[in-house]
Amino acid sequence: MNNIPYQRKSGQFERARGIGHVPIIENKFVKNELKSYHISHQEKVDEIPQELIFDLSQEINKETLPKYIFSFDGSSKEVEVDERFPSTRLGYLQIAAVLVLMEEIIEQEKHTFINPSKLKDTIYESIQPMVFPGSNIRKKNCTNLVESWRYGIYEIFTKYVIEDTALLDIYFTLLKYGKERFSGNNIILKKCAATERCAKNIPVPKEGCKCPSCGLELFPTDALRVYEEVYDLQSNSGPLNRMMSCLEHLYMIGYLEYLRKRRLDLLSNTAFIIDGPLAIFGPQAWIHRSILNFINTHIYQNLEDQSFKYPIIVGIEKTGNFAEHADIISKFLKPQTLMLLTENYIYKYILSCQKPQSGEYGSETYYGQKLFYKTKKQQILTITIPTKKKPLFTKEILKHPALLGTLNLLDHIGTIIYKDALIPIALAHSYASIPLKTGSKILKILSQKELNIT
Ligand SMILES: [Zn+2]
Prior knowledge:
By secondary structure, the chain is an alpha+beta fold. It folds into two domains: 56-127 and 237-450, no CATH class; 137-232, no CATH class. It has 14 helices and 18 strands. The chain has helices at 12-18, 28-35, 57-60, 102-109, 145-159, 167-175, 237-262, 264-268, 287-305, 321-329, 343-350, 403-412, 423-432, 438-451, and strands spanning 53-55, 68-80, 89-101, 124-133, 161-162, 165-166, 182-183, 186-191, 200-204, 209-210, 217-218, 270-275, 312-317, 337-340, 368-374, 380-386, 414-415, 421-422. The strands form five sheets. It has a nine-stranded mixed beta sheet with strand order 1-14-15-16-13-12-2-3-4. Zinc ion (ZN) is lined by residues 192, 194-195, 198-199, 211, 213-214, 216. Zinc ion binds next to loops.
């Protein structure tokens, strides 16, 4: 801070406008300020520590492929509903679950170019579109926007089903595995969602209840705390994306449970791919603990008891700090090698702007361990594999029963049409995506029709 000139303190905006024709980057104050910045990703990587690299080609090639692949992806978009009042907005969200037969991909693999759209006739998809109120809009039975979101989310959870089970039931099944948030048949709401500084630790049943202190309606889905980031008179794409991410994971949980109840053999032969890391961020981050326990003590345990192997569960990141770093260091890795990420490495090369906080990276958000994998086809992927337990950065992951099967699958589902993309993800994405141009026009018309705005 000491190299910032004194003058800057008074009226810096006037000053900035006063320099008019001088490009901002040439301004000496700006120049000095820039010198005081540390920018991540500028650390040069000359080689990767050998102890982090594992050539697994021998072992991977012995693995068998799963029969089915499920992939999950969501997309969201906030649109204006009335040109005269551009701040009146609605949020749309869509989740796609796509099921692909592995043999169809193998068939496609014989051709030089694998085209995901060719596969479209042979896959099964479930698309669920949802709508959320935005700035200047409330549900008719609610007093404001925040309440509309709370009620709206509860409604979605009661009305939307995954095959035959309501989202709300899946949510309750999952939360039973997060001990500190569940008691009897109730979800424990840490604080009243209807009134600020009201009751704490309120047990809320599936059907909702009145707050013991303020008497207002509370919903079990309030525990997701999505409403905390909802504000009137501004964009709500933030909470919309939080909701989307939560739902993607919940959909995966729903299908894991669906197969577990019916066909353990099929579950064991199915892969589940999520677009993004196996992690939950923001006010909902606490749910990652329930997912970790659900996978380990419920799904894995059930399969183990019946001597079935674990299904493949993997998160794939296409963007962000890790994916960008993976691109840079890809040249150091041979095909079919796995790179272990240690906390040391992460904070030195990838997140050098962040100081390690208490505990390890991702301990409050991840239910898996992050790794880099270079496929047989030379794609570099940032993946997360469910951890059996924390901490997240040990070599133990190499012993994970589903690791080699996962890498083998990733070797086969790459597509050269999109850089570092995987066929099932590309498919899920194409179903989930709300097209930016035509899409928003259609959504706008739909919004206008349904809301009677002319
Ligand atoms: Zn209350």
